Amino acid sequence: MKCPYCDHLDNRVIDSRLNKDKTITRRRRACGSCEQRFTTYERIEMMLPMLIKKDGRREQWNRGKIILGLEKACEKLPVSMAEIDTFVDEIERRLQEVGGKEISTNLIGEWVMEALPELDEVAYVRFASVYRQFKDVNEFMDELKQFLGERDCE
Length: 154
Description:
By secondary structure, this protein is an alpha+beta fold. 47% of the residues lie in helices and 20% in strands.
């Protein structure tokens, strides 16, 4: 592991801890050269299917992209980064369960839309406004009416 301060490759692990789900290892390290301390995180690399975009392009799963979208949807809301990470972990688990070599990004978007109201309803509305690409206010209102109608049934 390269030191982020001096680029030296020699360092030692001072402390290791698992997160509560036991899926990520947090390691506190000290550089052997400059003695600065830094933290690294290890997670198991999963073999996830290639994503098929709306325009037919294919790309690899990028956890950071979905986290960024969720951060924007949850901006200024009482949703922690830990909750967003857990949310994305669940999406990744579903990706693994599907198996196969390719999956449509539309399906992933629908999974997010299904689960997001449980995280935060305002985040759901924000995410939906970008994901659904409403052409006008009427389309947006139709989505809200459908969402509120589903909420009343619960």
